[in-house]
Amino acid sequence: MADAERGAQGEAGGIRGEAAGGRVMTIDLDSSLRTLHAKRTELLNQVDAIDTALAALATAGITVVNAPEPAEAAGDVTSPVVPTRIKARRVLSDEHRQALIDGRRMARHRRAVDEGRARELLAPSLAPSQAAGLPRLVKRAK
118, 89 in Cβ contact below 8 A? Predict the structure, then answer.
């Protein structure tokens, strides 16, 4: 019974497990805990030293070189708030938006023709907005 408990926890409070290749690894938790406690006390001592330095600076009345004067700071607080004017958002007209869309479509088609994925158009087609006003079929004069 004692061997089974010792096998689960390892020797001296460590953890024992099997690694790849059938090797047995033992991790000593006590030494890890001692290292972590030592690091914690070291960091707490550093924080205490910082706190005492800040308290000494506050009692000595030392001010920062780049800090604004207290009179200037009080003057800024009492100044009136001036609203900022924002320009209205620019919106394209429908004709301009349609022209941009047609231009992108024709550029895409030109790239497809250059790559050999599409046939070249014989004549540039009218934009759908312009073609709506023209008749689709026209009689020929004899």
Answer: no
Residue 11 belongs to some domain of the structure: yes
pTM, to two decimals: 0.29
Domain-located, residue 30:
yes
Domain membership flag for residue 74: no
Examine residue 55 and state whether it is found in any structural domain, yes or no. yes
Domain that holds residue 14: 2-59
Q: What is the pLDDT along the chain (142 residues), one digit of tens a residue?
A: 444 444 444 444 556 666 666 677 777 888 889 999 999 999 999 999 999 988 888 887 766 555 556 555 454 556 788 888 888 888 888 888 899 999 999 999 999 999 988 888 776 665 555 555 555 555 666 6
Q: Structural domain tally of the chain? A: 1
| Rounded alpha-carbon distances, angstroms, from residue 9 to 4, 12, 14, 30, 33 | 9, 8, 6, 12, 16
The residue among 30, 2, 27 whose CA lies nearest residue 15 is 27
